[in-house]
Automatic annotation (TrEMBL), chain A:
Keywords, ordered alphabetically: Signal
Stored CDD domains: Met_dep_hydrolase_C
SUPFAM superfamilies (UniProt xref): Composite domain of metallo-dependent hydrolases, Metallo-dependent hydrolases
Amidohydrolase-related domain ranges (all copies): 108-433
Protein name: Amidohydrolase
Species annotation: Salinimonas profundi
TrEMBL record, chain B:
Protein name, entry field: Amidohydrolase family protein
Signal sequence region: 1-21
PANTHER family: ALPHA-D-RIBOSE 1-METHYLPHOSPHONATE 5-TRIPHOSPHATE DIPHOSPHATASE
UniProt keyword list: Signal
Keyword Membrane: no
Pfam family, one: Amidohydro_1
Amino acid sequence: MAHTRTCVTAALAFLVPALLSGCQSTQNSGNDSEQAAQKVNIDTNPYPSTYTPIEGQPTVITNVTVIDGVGNKIDNGMVYFADGKIQAVGENIDFPDDARVIDGEGKWVTPGIIDNHSHLGVYPSPAIGSLSDGNEMTKPVTPGVWAEHSVWPQDAGFARALAGGVTTLQILPGSANLFGGRSVVLKNVPSRTMQDMKFPEAPYGMKMACGENPKRVYGKKGGPMTRMGNVRGYRQAWSDAQDYMRKWEKYEADVDAGKEATPPKRDLDLETMAGVLNGDILVHMHCYRADEMVTMMDMMKEFDYQISSFHHAVEAYKIADKLEQNNVCASMWADWWGFKMEAYDGIRENIPMVEKAGACAIVHSDSDIGIQRLNQEAAKAWSDGKRAGIDISMADAWVWLTANPAKSLGIFDKTGSLEAGKNADLVLWTGNPFSTYTKAEKVYIDGGQVFDLNDPRMQPQSDFEVGQAAQGENQ
Amino acid sequence: MRKLIIAAALASAGFAQSALAQNIAITGAKIYTQTEQGVIENGTLLIRDGNIESIGNDVNVPDGYRKYDASGKVVTPGLVGAMTSLGLVEVESWAGVVDASVGDASVSHSGAAFDVSYAINPDSTVIDVSRIEGVTSAATTISYTDYLFQGQGSVISLGKGAEIIKPRAFTVLDVGGNGAEHSGGSRAALWVTLEKLFDEASGLSEAPGLDTVWEGLNTRADIEALQRILSGDMPLVMEAERKSDILQILAFKKRHPEVNIILMDAAEAWRVADELAEADIPVIMNPEMNLPDSFEAIGASIENAARLAKAGVKVAVGMETHNIRLATQHAGNAVANGLTHEQGIASLTSNPASILGVSDRVGSLAAGKQADVVIWSGDPLEVTEYAEQVFIKGEPIDMDSRQTELRDRYQNFYGQDGKTSQYIQP
């Protein structure tokens, strides 16, 4: 653990690759030149994951309808998983005699749902001021705050989301600020600590926000009070981050050249932004309006970073071609609209129209209620597309719930599909998950069972709910 | 464009609705009548002069009726939005006056006097968006005031013109934490205030005349509204989540048996389901609210609707404005968690109609009722099914909204080959 951590430490997000070797030599010998020893290293992973998978057993689900999350459907298929990984998926696959066999007749199996937009833990239940920790609404540029430092693992919403088949979720800061802070990717396992839930090796994200929210919050508190003020705010901050990187690069170069050098003062805000510019931290940007999204994509080119996904994106359908060209995902609701001006042009066909244009469409929740039935959110969008002449298969629609959000979070090499070698994050549904009446029956994370619809012992309960007079969902 | 053509057709007909009124026959459908006739398989429904003429298995279609073949499809009464702010709000946040929100207004001390029937905008795009998905009428209310009461709501039709089916149809009052905040921050003040307001109103035979000096707790305008509540003419929709608050409502009902009470929100209502059934207090709710999102809703449960209905409580589902169209999904999820399918359909149609006092006109399909009818592609509670054709007062409505027009505009913009032009052309 210590070794890994120190090594990551040395690979400071924004340092040039040449410095990596410096890190490694320091690490390997522990007795390097004085210059290297003097170099200030910054630990980029000071709150490391302590996640340990729940122990599972080799399991095969047979006679089941399989949706693999990358566009394929097998009507009478099998899924075999063991050692925390998907081992095989197909119509007829080999599995060992001692594997547990679950007859999936009439049921469907899918990859676990990945919600890339949740505020569970940072805006938990109960929704009271004392637990409201999602928006650092003190100044518009706060990329140095980390959502993981607000996550309350006892939010009852985690278990409700699990009952809806959500196995992985990104917890984002709110959207009051131009730069809202770092996100964290969690595995949805009932735990005492955020670190126990933290998805190992998932990159950090950084939240940004367009439009109405920053200008409403700061319009009378020193600004920005306009959209042009918002853009000035982003650009100045990016420019400051570039300057900050140059200072560190100069420092590193001076130390390497044997010169006397004082390390720059750490700036936690700029450190996160430098991580983005270096490609280690993924940008998730709250943005509703088509024209604003296009401006943001220009800005991304101006400062040479990549936006991973726009979030909410209710006007994505107007610029789906440009999203495709720029390789930016859109994370959307099926049908939310009208609650504010920038959501006024929402249409039900937003998701299928983004899909049709070949862009990366994602179904997200941004809601502790919506996260409980994201399968229905995808089902609505699938049906809305069909009505509008956009024929998408259910298997392709499921990509919106697993593979695409996994890609937006930089974890698709680990999860988001039922393919051999991937983490065994999967859901066995009581039937077709495009139906209102279908529920998640069994949920597995890394091959360990976390939830069972028919076994109260497999239905997590938060500390907050323990010992209350009223036991709503847990009786 | 289609709208323009229809408008032109109306113009040439001199806007005479009756001149356009058609006799309509819907055949072959599975019909949820929401009456003693129950569900009719392969049924026929006749519409004449805006009303339902007859309904059943053995109904012959007379000549001259425009036929809608609904074989394999489902027909229900038009959905009745149980609690919305339709017509009172276009965009909620920071976009001009929202008539669903009342700040300082000296005409009232308690908020009881406000009356939304003056405030409804039939041109709101939210009405079109909702009606093409099967919502044909709705309760519409102020959703926020600086006062105790949320004024007097109306029940409106979502047909063109948004006719008011029933003005001053109900008054909403929060007796939970939100209500307490308007009463010094405590229920200890809220209930005393409420009782004193009602005491004063009940002690007067009528509102004091202009020739008397009046310095009561209520303003003259409030007294009239409170007297209508006290007589049972105007239902009082009491919002509460916590069991103890609902018990207070039951106690209030005992003290004021004439008052026609509807419970709303009601997270912990299942804990007192039998008592609510016995007191004949119906519930308006969103059954998806299953989180302990405050200390008032610790017992929130996804089975709330099912448990209430099982105890005999009349349940209405549908508390939204922009997305009141999602009431079908909400009811569907209640059915997925124990509500019967029949109760699920009732929670969207006959139950809200009867709770709101408009069941003589809407909410069920029977001869003589207003012909608010929906042909669905399949089970309305399935998220993948949808309203194929909606009729309001016997007229097949134009199934377009600003949203479908935006959709078509951009689908055309991308073109058949997926290529776009630089400029948007209508």
